[in-house]
């Protein structure tokens, strides 16, 4: 059925074009022979083709454009006739004898154009006559195209200021009146189109109406181009008349399109000075009109106008633009009771962007916008519409993008209240945006109060807002979120120890409420930020006798107590390996502060963790090397405490599961008894005991390899121990003699030669490199060279 209709329409169009071309041919022949009567006769017959009601607006336009082209040629003929002395007034009367009204009016408009140009009558009189007579066509499509033709032929002949058709003092008002009257009639015809035809075709008619909207909108463009339309005339006549028509037509499509036209075609300064009138019409529009887009475009235009020059900003203050826009949005939302949340969010998002552009120094305005938004949505719970939540994110991101400083945004008291409307997922997205802004602009948060406010904003990342189980969250996303929080914690800094200690306490309070899954990410940055404060306190009081006396309210001791409790929370995760590392870091910091009891306590906690919580053999190996490395650097311990800790470390080393791991841990322990820069910590005998013990374990490892695999195994451990021998030999340990080094070299050489399996290339290379080192030291000469001279390789 539809295809048949389209085919029929094509036939009607083809027939119309054929009839039009045939009559146009006879019209041209009459024009060529200066036969005016025949020219008018055939032109009227040609224009009669436009009387059809069988074409859609789209097809009718094709026919109209062909007729329009012919009418331009006819107009040229009329001009020539006038030049040859033909009376235009007589011609104006003559064309009115055309039999049908539509051809008659087209011919009248064509002659009228020449009539105005001849200046034989005032332009305003001719235009008034034409616009009045055009009321004779009430068919919507035919009427629209006729009035569009009238607008087209008259637009360069309006009695405007500076125009050759300018008349008396009120001439501009006449031009405005003509355009407004034509606009009003066209809009009525356009709106009436929706009632033509059966109800089932309403959607099709709305589409056709949308295609014709520019015919109506061009009138507003013509109005904006009239030079004489100054602000006063626009304010008193043009805008009220146009808005009256917009409001009274009560048509959704017309109201939206015409409001958009008004905003787009008239100057920004006019909008600014007539905000009351323009905004007053908004609540009167139909509820179904997309008012959010209209107002958003208006605010965007005004924002761009404000950005164009700093000189226009006083105008905004003078007319109280912000207050008017804010009130208008409130009234529009009240008038449109069923306005969806996306509409409310978009309006306030646009208002906030306007405020930030025009009044960047008025934070109270920005906060007022957020407050109004909260008020309008109060009692509606979380926003579920995904488009609306995106707009809320845009709303909240606007201050961050404008100020590039979260500290400024934190001054907005309603900011966190807006975030409460976001669902958990979007809340996390917004929290991430906030953190990214801080990182991008390297913003340091300087006070505990601001940290508290910031954590209130990003609580979606640091705690489960709605009881969501961690298992429901993507693991990679969760890690990325927590890593961003960890980076954020590093941005908290204050040179004042008191305030920094408060910041640390605030951060700790929040991260402890985040549940055990988050602690492995958030505790380490807090610990290191706290240790930074400890070193700051230590460095700032080097020259005082009692650097950590009772008078100071923030002391390393206090910080260490806080850290001990914080790290302990990792055991609930459980994350014993991480906790052990952090205990050792704290012990080293306490060592630098000369706090022996504190350092000892941290080591004790690390040892307890090692014994009770770390059971994996690989984790034990890593942990024991960390313990040995940290303990070796400690200088604060007295003999008794150091012996206790060292004895424990060597004991742990010897109890590792795998013999090679045992061996390496035991020879690493030798460094605990020989510290270069401390004379009271050089016990060569115990160093030798460790190395000999390592040799015994290495030998046992070889025997086990022989028993299980039928080979003596790798000599790598012996080469590693040889390197330790050489280290202590070079450092002057009297217990490490040339003989002991020599015998070890011979042992390794024998082992590698007697091994029935091919030696590993890495072991060979390692041993060869060690031998080259000995040779190099010999050649170097000096005291070290003399020592090495006795070793034979």
From TrEMBL:
PANTHER family: VACUOLAR PROTEIN SORTING-ASSOCIATED PROTEIN 35, VACUOLAR SORTING PROTEIN 35. Pfam families: Vps35. Belongs to the VPS35 family. Keywords: Cytoplasm, Endosome, Golgi apparatus, Membrane, Protein transport, Transport. This is Vacuolar protein sorting-associated protein 35. Its main location: cytoplasm. InterPro entries: ARM-type_fold, Vps35, Vps35_C. It is a peripheral membrane protein. Gene3D superfamilies: Vacuolar protein sorting-associated protein 35, helical subcomplex Vps35-C. SUPFAM superfamilies: ARM repeat (SSF48371). Plays a role in vesicular protein sorting. It is found in: Cytoplasm; Endosome membrane; Golgi apparatus, trans-Golgi network membrane; Prevacuolar compartment membrane. One of its GO terms (cellular component) is late endosome.
